[in-house]
Amino acid sequence: MVFKIGDHVMVLDENMSGVVKNIVGTSISIETEDGFLLDFKSDELIKDTSKSILKKARISNTAISEKEQPTRKQQKRIKAKDRFEPTIEVDLHINQLVKSPRGMSNHDMLTLQLDTARHKLDWAISKRIQKIVFIHGVGEGVLKIELEYLFGRYNNIKFYDANYQKYGLGATEVYVYQNV
């Protein structure tokens, strides 16, 4: 709503009205009927087209009653397919783990990737997170084979190729069985 100096306005959510005296951006200064200068945002005001006291009382009572109505929080609906989406993704591409792989041998890179995977998996197990996706890329498959060997040493997890539509062939999803 556009206001100009001299407009009669009412304050939403309060039983107060006045005349616009100054406008700076979305901040509007009004002079109340009692002579006080107060600042409000433009979305807190409405134009008072009729100076009828009865209309003001009805609007303020409606605003107050709407404010007092208990509002029900909308629960976020989760689609069935989203319910089973993994909660954590770990990108094991070397450029995501270090600023520059320059000077690192292939063995150093693979060791760093596997240590990161082991650390993230242990962390997920300790935090009782059920699903985690390790993004390893396609490449020659060395990292994928090593990850499968690592995951095979845990007896409380199962692992399989992650969602093809989302990750292609370059990711493995791990499901952690929680001991209740």
Provide structural commentary:
- The structure is a single chain.
- This protein has 180 residues and is of the alpha+beta class.
- It has six helices and nine strands, in the order E-E-E-E-E-H-H-E-H-H-E-H-E-H-E.
- The strands form two sheets. The protein has a five-stranded antiparallel beta sheet with strand order 4-3-2-1-5, with no helix packed on it. A four-stranded mixed beta sheet has the order 6-7-9-8, with helices on one face.
- A hairpin with a 4-residue loop joins strand 3 and strand 4.
- Helix 4 (106-126) runs parallel beside helix 5 (142-152).
- It starts with 7 loop residues before the first strand and ends with a strand.
In short:
With 180 residues, the chain is an alpha+beta fold. The protein is 33% helix and 26% strand.
Describe the SSE topology.
Layout: E1 8-11, E2 17-24, E3 27-32, E4 37-41, E5 45-47, H1 53-68, H2 80-83, E6 88-91, H3 94-97, H4 106-126, E7 131-135, H5 142-152, E8 157-161, H6 164-167, E9 171-176
Parallel strand pairs: 6-7
Antiparallel strand pairs: 1-2, 1-5, 2-3, 3-4, 7-9, 8-9
Helix pairs in contact: 4-5
Features of this protein?
180 residues, alpha+beta, five-stranded antiparallel beta sheet, four-stranded mixed beta sheet, DNA mismatch repair protein MutS, Smr_dom_sf, Smr_dom
Gyration radius, rounded: 31 Å
Strand line-up in the sheet with most strands: 4-3-2-1-5
Helix content: 25-40%
User: From N to C, what is the helix and strand string?
Assistant: EEEEEHHEHHEHEHE
Residue-averaged pLDDT? 82
Helix/strand structural class: alpha+beta
Low-confidence stretches: none
Give the number of DSSP strands. 9
What is the tally of helical segments?
A: 6
Beta percentage is 25-35%
Mass-distribution shape: elongated
